[in-house]
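ugh ok fine here u go
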Amino acid sequence: MTFEEKVLGQIKEKMTKTIEFFQDELSGVRSGRANPALVEGMMVNYYGTPTKLKELAGITAPEPRSLVIQPWDIAAIEEIMKALNKNESGLVPKLEGKIIRIQVPELSEQRRNELKKVVKNMAEEARVNLRNTRREMNEFVKKGQKNSQITEDDLFRIEKEVQIKTDDFIKKVDDILIHKEKELTQV
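structure:
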């Protein structure tokens, strides 16, 4: 593996992780639609151990505005209800036999605008992380040139490739942001 391949492989890996983290964060931001990601990361006290809800139950969105939670262990229903009621998302769970149903209320215009700001801040954090990765890789490449691992021409070529990768990943962040903003504005 050449020095250039190593650098480009590392930058792609790090930037892909940044994008994945950004998408995971966004999935927790409530839009007008029911999405299992709204609750699946919620921590539930399961026999004294904090456990993610998605590890205790099947979570589905059978309709655009409702979630259904089916615990695999019926004994966990009470703790799941406690965790859902403590959650500050404004979701109200209802116990219906062995399942928990949540009706997702519509977002007000004010709340939609607040969420757009939150989403934009998340996108900016992702962009900053991508730029920091670019800076780290460029510093690594410059050290490689100082240590005579690569020539000055290689340095400029690799820095250009790093910039192209950075631009591509920032465009991905922008595209994901646009999609999420559209999702937030749909009524």
